[in-house]
Design a protein that fits this description.
mainly alpha, elongated
Amino acid sequence: MPKSKETPSQKIKRLEKELSDERLRNAILNKMINISDQQYGTAIRKKFLSKQSSISNKKSK
């Protein structure tokens, strides 16, 4: 833990930097998944909507 407390403006700047870093990380991971799907024919992303709709149909019967 730092010895001095962050000022609100310092905290905002730090959190904005962290958010920017995470957005970049997310974009890179999505690009990697897209490339893998295209080049290697993988299906890393799952189709949750179709699974959810079939589960909800089973529950309602």
